[in-house]
Amino acid sequence: MRRFFGKKRTSSLPKQNASAGSSASEKGYKLMSGSMGSLKIPETVPPPDQDCQRLKKAFDGFGTDEDAVIWILGHRNASQRREIKDTYQQLYNKSLIDDLQSELSGDFRDVVILWTRDPPERDAKLARVVLTKKKKVVKHLKVLVEIACASSPNHLMAVRQVYSSLFDCSLEEDIASTISLPTRKLLVGLVTSYRYDKQLVDTGIANSEASRLHEAIETKQYDHDHVVWILSTRNFFQLRATFECYKQKYGHSIDQDIKSCGHGELESLLIAVYWCIASPAKYFAEVIKDSIVGLGTDEDSLNRAIVTRAEIDMIKIREEYSKMSKTSLVDDVIGDTSGDYKNFLLTLIGERL
Q1: What number of other Cβ atoms are within 10 A of residue 312's Cβ?
Q2: Which domain holds residue 226?
Q3: Which residue ranges run through the membrane (predicted)?
């Protein structure tokens, strides 16, 4: 049950503490191995049926034990969360997502549900939200660029498969039917690609394709077949080499030259493509900064950036954020959010145990 009259249930689980200096291992938690993600998981993870029982207990009775929800779901990786969801369905013949929907509220509910979904399903639904909007502005279309260019080829393939299964239509069909040229051409090319995912670089190709990109930018032919083909098929390591070669040959980075030529929809999306490939951490640090700075908070963008990157490169994002903002991501999240919503975000960025 949701909290009534502002009353919050006392959790039976250990109290979480914001602790900027303490390591996860000091409290029996560890960062995910082999990644720059900020997610901290227990050294010994309880079995999924135990997690489910604790979640069910958090929902039962008067009010909801939000601390228990944060403690459990905020410290489980994607495969562990999937096991919890499957086990919850088996034990109680109910959807965990549905119970979270009914038991939680507001921004806290939105971010917890976004986090609890399987990553391919999450991104498929994020794409669907964009494509069903009557008016799609650049900020919305950048979500499609993130899915296509800031994740692995295997993840993109999984997103496309889930999208088709959920909505009886392919992702590229919906892009083609709802987005006009020339943006459509670029986005269809990006989402239908399957890049080679190994570190393979040909310096000769980097040099020649840097020249082709420069020619297209000079003539403002941003949707030229060569541009779309290069950006949508080359592996990320090859493209980073091409971007570096471009800068060495012409004295400016690609995004700088595009900015100098215009600020339209296609130009803005091409710049997003560039940064998602060249430095995803810097790109998402900028997304988070834009969601916080100014009047009000863009919770959708803030949630998306933190949820999608917590298991990938949030440590790097925090570093980039500090460089560009002169403040820490932690301080800005604390200053711009509140309550359980704030606590869950801090948990995902590795600042709260």
Answers
A1: 23
A2: 195-278
A3: none
- Cα(296)–Cα(34) distance, integer angstroms: 36
220 part of a folded domain: yes
* CATH classification at residue 310: 1.10.220.10
- The two structure tokens encoding residue 62: 């008067």
Q: HSE on the CB side for 125, CA within 13 Å?
A: 12
Token digits for 77? 């990786």
CB distance 306 to 337 below 8 Å = no
pLDDT in tens, 238-257: 999 999 999 999 999 999 99
State the DSSP code for 317: H
Judgement on whether residues 207 and 238 belong to the same structural domain of the protein: yes
C-alpha–C-alpha distance, residues 302 and 107, integer Å: 11
How many other CB atoms are there within 10 angstroms of residue 76's CB atom?
21
Sequential DSSP letters for 236-269:
HHHHHHHHHHHHHHHSS-HHHHHHHH--SHHHHH
- d(CA 110, CA 112) in angstroms, rounded, equals 6
Number of domains in the chain: 4
User: Which amino acid is residue 253, in one-letter code?
Assistant: S
Is pLDDT above 80 for 177? yes
* Same domain (yes/no): 158, 210: no
Instruction: Tell me: do 261 and 320 sit in the same domain.
Output: no
Same domain? For 204 and 215 the reply is yes
327 lies in the same domain as 250: no
User: Which tens digit of pLDDT belongs to each residue from 274-332?
Assistant: 999 999 999 999 999 999 987 789 999 999 999 999 999 999 999 999 999 989 999 99
pLDDT at 24 over 60: no
Task: Specify if 288 maps to a domain.
Answer: yes
The residues, any chain, with a CB within 8 Å of residue 303's CB and separated by 6 or more, are 107, 110, 111, 114, 345
38 in the same domain as 113: yes
The residue whose two tokens read 């080359």 is 234
Sequence-distant (≥ 6) Cβ neighbours of residue 156 within 8 angstroms: 147, 148, 191, 193, 194
Residues 71 and 94 grouped into a single domain = yes
Same domain, 39 and 107: yes
